[in-house]
From TrEMBL:
Composition-biased stretches (Low complexity): 114-123, 172-182
Every Leucine-rich repeat and WD repeat-containing protein 1 WD domain range: 204-590
Annotated GO CC locations: nuclear origin of replication recognition complex
Lineage, top ranks: Eukaryota, Metazoa, Spiralia, Lophotrochozoa, Mollusca
Residue ranges of WD repeats: 319-353
Stored InterPro entries: LRWD1, WD40/YVTN_repeat-like_dom_sf, WD40_repeat_CS, WD40_repeat_dom_sf, WD40_rpt, WD_LRWD1
Repeat found in the keyword field: yes
Localization (cell): Chromosome
One GO term of the biological process aspect: chromatin organization
Stretch list, region Disordered: 88-188
Domain of life: Eukaryota
Recorded GO MF terms: chromatin binding
Protein name as it appears in the record: Leucine-rich repeat and WD repeat-containing protein 1 WD domain-containing protein
Length: 597
């Protein structure tokens, strides 16, 4: 059964608060028991902060911004001592800057007016739970038949008649893009065609299966979807083990080596459901000191983009610009403060999120440009630095915008990329005239992996090789020349996102399985067009889970036939794989030590 995370698994942010508070109570509480005047406030704060900087409890703090956050916590405690307030968790606002507390809202300097006030909430430990994986399964399982699921980001899954293809209820407009091209003339039935092998990646063992996105701390919440996950960018040539996940009202930061939920941000709006997140490493300057910090952008159902500093999970800005929910976010790989956001309002906005000032938690952000996706909405975004192009996998087709000259970027797409069907897709009845590109990932050397809903294969194509030499006005239709097909599986649900890190491609399905493809060697060979079908490097099956040690009452988890993997990712050193599911679980797999030999 699910085991509640014990006291040793509390968040690092909350632990910092407790340590600072304890320091005050031991050394200063009696001395200032009667309070002090406003004139003495700065002197008392400086005295307290100086004692903290010399304490071994905080010896691991190295970044200037983290010291600024520590001073904010100290300021809050000193302010409460001045008012002779009780030190209770209920009236402690974790990491809230003094200026924000005094105004009871979060303030932002921006070019688009004030943002909607919102403050992170501290949630208890009772809804942070883990399951213990038993012996992992191996081989191929034969799943039981079940009805297709009708699943939308803004709706609850409902059943549809057996055997009927699943359709999205989101987009009901009559306008359609160009029809899909004729399937490959030289491609035989892909079911019977022999597949080639990709390099092995070794074995991975299930390590932690964590429930940390529950609504109302409900241990039986099987409905909240964990939509996205991404590892924190590497720092100083060390691969990151910290994973960010989003779903429901929550954004979590998890240590994948220990399974500890380090921090958690809970949005104040009950209507929020976070669908997208993206990391970036941005430069900062504080006084004479310069460095780099990581920030996290999240967005979802409410249509706002929220910027979070992960050291204390402080939400320091809310950006407004879309008129419907946001389904995807992407930071520009060469411009770390530039953020793309795709929404159901059929717009892609490019923002400059600015560099935050962590002394007062403000930032200057602005909207740089708005791109039109015309008759559809973007589901996934990738940016090719080689071709200087933004690619959007959409509800209807796949589009690209040239960014060679940033001053003359077209609002309308320059290209519509038509992803071909396979013979087996057509024969199975799972091929539509217009593809729903619900999975998109950038691989090395300008290769792109595209997954169309309902297809039993993923398409690998080279962007550079598919771009026409002559530049024309308007949107040019490009029939994609396929470099290879990847063996996959037919799914009965959509919005299953792909992950790609250092040539390793990851994809989940609707049976709880993970497909891993080691594409590094393939992308180093130039293949402009091919009928080759590549089998996956390995397939991780859903393990048996032990929930017998739960500290709270919890029902049995669904079997693998009801597990949808919404998104997955791997660490930079390819030793950790993580995914988020439709039944409110974050799953972490570790590379077996034997595989390193």
């Amino acid at each position: 059964m699910l085991a509640a995370i014990d006291q040793g698994d509390i968040s690092k942010g909350k632990e910092t608060n407790v340590n600072v508070k304890s320091k005050w109570e031991v050394l200063f509480a009696a001395k200032y028991a009667e309070g002090f005047s406003d004139d003495q406030f700065e002197l008392v704060l400086q005295e307290f902060y100086t004692s903290l900087t010399s304490d071994l409890l905080f010896k691991n703090i190295t970044e200037e911004t983290e010291w600024a956050i520590l001073k904010d916590i100290a300021s809050e405690i000193v302010e409460k001592a001045q008012d002779k307030s009780l030190f209770t968790e209920s009236n402690m606002s974790r990491g809230t800057p003094r200026s924000a507390r005094l105004n009871h809202k979060w303030l932002n300097r921006n070019d688009s007016g004030p943002s909607t006030p919102s403050t992170p909430e501290s949630t208890g430990q009772k809804d942070l739970m883990r399951v213990k994986p038993l012996t992992p399964k191996s081989g191929t399982s034969t799943p039981a038949s079940r009805p297709s699921l009708k699943r939308g980001r803004d709706s609850t899954p409902t059943s549809s008649p057996q055997g009927q293809p699943k359709k999205r209820a989101r987009d009901t407009t009559q306008t359609t893009p160009t029809r899909r091209p004729t399937v490959f003339t030289s491609l035989k039935n892909t079911v019977e065609q022999k597949t080639a092998s990709l390099p092995s990646i070794g074995d991975f063992d299930p390590a932690y299966f964590i429930r940390c996105h529950s609504t109302n701390n409900d241990p039986n919440d099987n409905q909240t979807k964990v939509w996205r996950c991404a590892f924190k960018p590497t720092n100083k040539d060390k691969s990151s083990r910290l994973l960010a996940t989003c779903g429901g009202q929550n954004v979590c930061l998890i240590d994948c080596q220990t399974g500890i939920v380090m921090k958690r941000y809970k949005d104040s709006s009950k209507e929020e459901d976070f669908y997208a997140l993206a990391w970036s490493t941005i430069p900062y300057k504080t006084g004479s000191k310069e460095g780099k910090i990581n920030i996290l952008a999240v967005a979802g159902n409410n249509g706002f983009i929220k910027l979070i500093h992960p050291s204390q999970f402080v939400m320091y800005a809310t950006m407004e610009g879309h008129h419907d929910y946001i389904s995807c976010l992407l930071f520009h790989p060469e411009e770390p403060t530039h953020l793309f956001s795709g929404s159901k309002d059929r717009k892609i906005i490019l923002w400059d999120v600015g560099v935050p000032d962590f002394t007062d938690y403000t930032t200057n952000y602005k909207k740089l440009m708005v791109l039109n996706t015309a008759h559809t909405d973007a589901l996934n975004l990738v940016f090719s630095t080689k071709s200087q192009m933004l690619i959007a996998g959409c509800e209807k087709s796949c589009y690209g915008w040239r960014f060679n000259n940033k001053k003359s970027v077209s609002r309308d797409p320059n290209f519509e990329f038509l992803i071909p069907s396979t013979m087996s897709d057509i024969e199975s009845g799972d091929s539509d005239d217009v593809e729903v590109v619900d999975g998109l990932a950038l691989l090395p050397n300008d290769y792109i992996a595209a997954k169309c809903n309902g297809s039993g294969h993923m398409v690998i194509w080279n962007l550079h090789d598919n771009l026409p030499v002559k530049v024309i006005k308007g949107t040019k239709t490009v029939e994609v020349k396929v470099s290879a097909l990847l063996q996959y599986t037919r799914t009965s649900v959509d919005y299953i996102n792909l992950g790609s890190t250092s040539g390793m491609l990851t994809a989940g399905d609707d049976k709880g399985s993970l497909f891993i493809y080691q594409m590094d060697a393939f992308t180093k060979k130039h293949k402009s067009s091919s009928d080759q079908i590549l089998g996956y490097s390995t397939k991780l099956l859903w393990p048996d889970l032990d929930i017998s040690s739960s500290k709270g009452k919890m029902d049995e988890l669904p079997d693998c036939n009801d597990i949808v993997i919404n998104s997955c990712c791997s660490s930079d050193d390819q030793t950790l794989i993580a995914c988020g599911t439709d039944n409110n679980l974050v799953c972490i797999w570790k590379k077996n030590p034997v595989s390193f030999l």
